[in-house]
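task queued by scheduler; priority normal; single chain, no ligands, no partner chains; default sampling; output format set to structure tokens
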Amino acid sequence: MTVRVVVADDQPMVRAGLRSLLEREDGVAVVGDARDGEDALTCIRRLEPDVVLMDIRMPVLDGLAATRRLVADGARTRVLVLTTFDLDEYVFDALRAGASGFLLKDATAEELLSAVRTIAAGEAVLAPSVTRRVIEAFGTAPRADPRLADRLAVLSPREVEVLRLLGRGRANAEIARDLVVSDATAKTHVSNVLTKLGLRDRVQAVIFACESGLLRTGEAAAPG
């Protein structure tokens, strides 16, 4: 199946370079590009790509605001934030906005292509250089957000345990082993947790588990 991609960046040379790189890969097609956040939203609504490469610093509407609006619209397109900046506030804001991944522009072609495929498959990606800070920040929140804690009530006791394991960075196979269930059952539990809490992927699950107070300080791990 071909992964359909839109590239959103305010620099024409960057857009052209990313298009050239992605289109050399079998199974990936760049179906459109955008010069700012508003242009990106218009393009995404018209073309419904699988993934959008979203720059942060763009005119008219920045990439974070565009991501928030995209998620609020319920679009199925998944967002990979691609930027030259690895400042913490950008990482955190992008993840909270609903991005499924964060990659720096100095990533290799192989890393970018892998990230696009991973996000299109419904998983999540964080640049290795920022993963540790994300874990530390979300894993050491001073107190739980009671609004998030209340939302845990929609989960069964088993689903709460699955969320705790997701927050610790466990893959489906590891969750199955820890709970002594089949891989298929673990996958179903994970899907149910994400659906009930309205979370897009494992990155959002890690953030939710930390900020709801479900995890104790230091328990959170990188989503893998």
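post-processing summary
- DSSP finds eleven helices and six strands in the chain.
- Residues 137-211 form a domain with the Arc Repressor Mutant, subunit A fold (CATH 1.10.10.10).
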